Amino acid sequence: MKIRLGIALLVLPGLTAFAPAPFHKPERTHAREITLSSFQGRWRVTKIEVSRADGRHLPIRPTYTHVRIVRHRWTFTYGDQEGASFDLTLDDRNKPPLLRLDGNVNGVGLIRRLGSQVQVAYRWGTEANRPVSFDRLPDDLWIITLERV
Q1: pLDDT tens string 9-49
Q2: Is the CB of residue 115 less than 8 Å from the CB of residue 37?
Q3: Which top CATH class is 41-148?
Q4: Which of 17, 55, 58, 65 sees the fewest Cβ atoms within 10 Å?
Q5: Where are the domains of the chain?
């Protein structure tokens, strides 16, 4: 019995010596983070609200159905019809990331991931008007909730 146990103890470590090396897993960004790269594609608008400082945001009827992000370009669409389009900048060094839309009108805001959805809170104006946190949004921001198509 002692011989069998001794052989088993010698053989067991040898079996793992010939096991294949694990595959290399590419480093992933944290699942909660959103970057310009992870934001690419077509997004369906699930909800639009206007913020209220007391937290009772007002739902509004959307005038567009989707948002499309291609490289550094944000485009509102209604079905397949293109609407307003803006140059998009995301500064993901900040938490939550800062969003900037540049075009005929300029917008500033924040962006965050909510499970499988993305939420953007923005207003038209300059950096001085930028919201700083989703926790206490001031009055009159557009809050768009998006879901990847």
Answers
A1: 556 566 556 666 666 655 454 456 799 999 999 999 999 99
A2: no
A3: mainly beta
A4: 17
A5: 41-148
At a CB cut-off of 8 Å and minimum separation 6, what does 55 contact? Answer: none
CA atoms within 13 A on the CB side of 113: 14
The answer to whether the beta carbons of residues 137 and 50 sit under 8 Å apart is no
Phi/psi region, residue 115 (left: phi>0; alpha: psi -120 to 50; beta: rest), is left
- Residue 130 tokens read as 């930028």
At residue 15, the 3 state secondary structure works out as: helix
- Closest-CA residue to 117 (of 55, 46, 20, 11): 46
Q: How many CB atoms lie within 10 A of CB 44?
A: 13
CA distances from 23 to 20, 26, 112, 118, 120 (A): 9, 9, 31, 31, 37
Q: What residue type is assigned to position 55 of the chain?
A: G
> Encoding tokens for residue 100?
């900037």
Contact 69, 39 (CB under 8 A): yes
